[in-house]
Design a protein that fits this description.
By secondary structure, the protein is of the alpha+beta class. It is built from 27 helices and 27 strands. The strands form five sheets. Strands 19-20-22-23-24-25-26-27 form an eight-stranded mixed barrel, surrounded by four helices. Strands 1-3-2-6-5-4 form a six-stranded antiparallel sheet. Helix 16 packs across helix 17. It binds ligand C2E and magnesium ion (MG) (2 copies).
């Protein structure tokens, strides 16, 4: 008992006697008891000090000495209580004087005040002191240094305060469940998110009860509570978080995250992600839709097609590839806002054309659209839709007193017949569209197996054609034109020929349309114009040269310059050049084309309307632009023996006379035809009867002899 200070003088005397007699034995026991007491005192965790009735210390333990940092040499059994206080004041552990301390402690010791109280030492430590009176007089004081405990308590309190503050200020709602699955924490934000009162969600509720209440209060949309509870339970038991979106009845969306807690139980946070969700939805919508028409775009179309084809039992469907006809003319004539407006109208009409809301109408860009027609029973279903679309899209579009016209061409590929994957189906539908377009506008075409071969052939033709110009494989033939009244030649038409080493002589019907589409016609036409002018410059002065001109040439810009340059270089007077244009030139409603034509006409160049009667509304075009000549298409001349055809031809001739326009009949092959035309008063004739298209040298000879005849006759 190194630190115990006990008054042992009387005990030592008794110890000696106890060895021999019972009294000695008792003394021995007493001694042992004493030792046990001392051991107990010494080993207790508190400081202990015992005083007798005279306020003298009987015993104290080491802890007591340590708590007050006392000097063990001074504070030992027998010392007076007041002297201990004096010592404490001396060493500065107490902030008060000995008598002040005595006055403070005495009422507690005497029982005048509660037996337990606290004292703060000069070094800030907090000591809990309690005094107990002893039956024989005196008292026991127990001292406990609670500084650490108090600090921990204060820290915990601070932690609680912070937790509460954090909970209250969270932007997320929070619920915490105990290991037993009962609600133990719920913050205000959660209640705010639910527009609920605290009493709606009492602590102690289970997850199941919470969900039930949320649904009954009309906050959550009804859901399978058992399934929901099961899912959460399973993921939490696996130690995993579970996140999900919860749609609220009022349209908002909450993001709910449930996380297991280390000590059992779990936390659920609720975040209002309505705005974020909407923004995300807007973004995905934008990524999948065309901004102008709000139709699905190509990527969405692909997604839907892949999805449909990927299904285990994919049903037959049709892919329709669409391209508007004459849309560019609308854009050029009425401006882009009108073009945009028209595209929106087309989009609406297309959406109305499809029968099933499942069908996908997409815009691929520009004037290209595509449709997936689901659940077709036969080819007839796709054909019906295509017909409907051609009809509906072809109707006029009226806006602000203007009337616009476009047409549409369609290519159709069927699943599974024409392909089993999206790429093949789309390519084949495009191929069919392409074929349709090359044959005329406002049509639909189904894909046919030979088309890809045709397509390859077509590509090869394009490539060869491109090279042919620099290889000088083109030539011009000339066909004479007769003045029926005088029986004399008045000029010739230049007709292009392609002598391809590989293909032989290619007729213009086979290569002009290709050249028009690739744009090569601009160079090719320029070449023909120069060549023709050069040839005509060597002809007699009253012989005219007619040159065919494609719409693409006039539209390309620079056309007037090209004509003027050809005239200047050849020295041919402008009034000896005749440009043959077709209705398609006039159909382009843009002012630029008409301006170019009138500019050339102003120079004296004559304009002839070729293939008259083959279009739809030739007469209407005559009003839009004054021409110098009409060439009646040879299909009319061929059928001249038919009464109604003859009537039409006579009418056109009469019309020409009325307007002061020369009328030329094309494709005159027989004397009978020429006779009829003469009688009807037709001005000029061209055809195999008058002369086949021939080489420049032959034509030159013919025309010169004609001129000689005329001048001599
Ligand atoms: P087009 O301008 O109507 O030319 C008349 C066509 O009728 C020529 O065909 C000519 O050979 C043919 N023809 C003339 N008389 C008769 C006849 O009595 N009976 C029959 N059945 N046909 C007759 P070709 O030379 O094959 O030219 C076809 C078309 O190609 C031309 O029709 C014209 O539209 C176009 N073309 C020809 N050369 C050029 C050119 O240099 N530039 C442009 N853009 N097109 C051209
Ligand atoms: Mg012609
Ligand atoms: Mg013609």
């Amino acid at each position: 008992m190194p630190g115990a200070h006990v008054k042992t003088s009387s005990v030592a005397g008794k110890r000696r006697a106890a060895a021999t007699d019972p009294a000695r034995r008792i003394a021995e026991e007493l001694r042992a008891q004493n030792e046990r007491f001392e051991a107990a005192v010494e080993n207790m965790s508190h400081g202990l000090c015992m005083f007798d009735a005279d306020e003298r210390m009987i015993i104290c333990n080491r802890n007591y000495i340590d708590i007050f940092s006392l000097d063990a040499e001074v504070v030992k059994p027998g010392i007076r209580f007041f002297d201990i206080l004096q010592h404490s004041a001396d060493i500065g552990i107490a902030s008060q004087s000995a008598s002040e301390l005595y006055a403070i402690r005495k009422p507690y010791i005497d029982g005048a005040k509660p037996s337990t109280y606290e004292e703060v030492l000069s070094d800030g430590r907090i000591i809990v002191i309690s005094h107990r009176p002893i039956a024989v007089g005196g008292w026991v004081s127990i001292y406990e240094d609670v500084t650490e405990e108090r600090r921990a308590e204060a820290e915990l309190k601070e932690q609680h305060r912070r937790f509460d503050a954090a909970l209250a200020n969270m932007s997320q709602g929070l619920l915490m469940y105990s290991a037993k699955g009962r609600l133990i924490v719920r913050n205000q934000r959660f209640l705010d998110l639910c527009n609920a009162k605290a009493s709606d969600f009492a602590l102690g509720m289970t997850h199941r009860q919470m969900l039930d209440k949320l649904i009954r209060l009309g906050i959550f949309a009804p859901l399978e509570i058992d399934v929901e509870v099961g899912k959460t339970k399973a993921s939490l038991e696996a130690g995993q978080s579970r996140a999900s979106y919860r749609e609220l009845v009022d349209g908002r969306t909450l993001f709910v995250l449930r996380r297991p807690l280390a000590g059992g139980g779990w936390v659920a946070t609720f975040e209002d992600v309505t705005e974020r969700r909407r923004a995300e939805e807007r973004m995905t919508h934008l990524a999948h839709h065309d901004t102008l028409t709000n139709l699905p775009n190509r990527s969405m179309f692909r997604e839907r097609l892949d999805q449909a084809l990927g299904e285990a039992k994919a049903q037959p469907l049709a892919i329709l590839s669409l391209d508007l006809d004459r849309f560019k003319a609308v854009n050029d004539t009425f401006g882009h806002p009108a073009g945009d407006w028209l595209l929106k109208c087309v989009a609406k009409r297309l959406q109305h054309s499809v029968r099933s809301s499942k069908d996908v109408v997409a815009r691929f860009g520009g004037d290209e659209f595509a449709i997936i027609q689901f659940g077709i029973k036969s080819v007839a279903d796709a054909e019906k839709l295509a017909k409907r679309i051609v009809e509906i899209v072809g109707k006029p579009y009226r806006d602000k007193g203007r009337e616009m016209h476009v047409g549409v061409s369609l290519g159709i590929a069927l699943y599974p017949g024409d392909g089993r994957d999206a790429d093949t189906l789309l390519t084949n539908a495009d191929m069919a569209l392409y074929r349709g377009k090359s044959q005329g506008r406002n049509v639909y075409r189904f894909f046919e197996p030979g088309m890809d071969a045709l397509m390859r052939e077509r590509r090869a033709l394009e490539v060869e054609l491109e090279a042919a110009l620099s290889k000088r494989e083109f030539e011009l033939d000339f066909q004479p034109i007769l003045n029926i009244g005088s029986g004399r030649m008045v000029g010739a038409e230049a007709l292009m020929r392609w002598h391809s080493p590989a293909r032989g002589l290619v007729p213009p019907e086979n290569f002009i349309p290709v050249a028009e589409e690739t744009g090569l016609i601009v160079q090719l036409g320029d070449w023909a114009l120069r060549k023709a002018c050069n040839v005509a410059a060597h002809w007699p002065r009253d012989m005219r040269m007619a040159v065919n001109v494609s719409a693409a040439q006039i539209k390309s810009g620079g056309f007037a310059r090209s004509v003027i340059s050809a005239l200047a270089f050849s020295g041919l007077p402008a009034d000896r050049l005749e440009l043959e244009i077709t209705e398609t030139v006039m159909m382009d409603e843009s002012d630029a084309v008409l301006k170019t034509l009138s500019q050339l006409r102003g120079l004296g160049v004559r304009i002839a309307l070729d293939d008259f009667g083959t279009g739809y509304s030739s007469l209407g075009y005559l009003r839009r632009f004054p021409v110098d000549k009409i060439k009646i298409d040879r299909s009319f001349i061929r059928d001249l023996d038919k009464r109604d055809t003859a009537a039409i031809v006579r009418t056109v001739i009469g019309l020409g006379a009325e307007l002061g326009i020369t009328v030329t009949a094309e494709g005159v092959e027989t004397e009978a035809q020429l006779d009829t035309l003469r009688k009807a008063g037709c001005g000029e004739a061209q055809g195999y009867l008058i002369g086949m298209p021939t080489k420049a040298s032959d034509m030159g000879r013919l025309l010169r002899s004609e001129a000689l005849l005329r001048h001599s006759g």
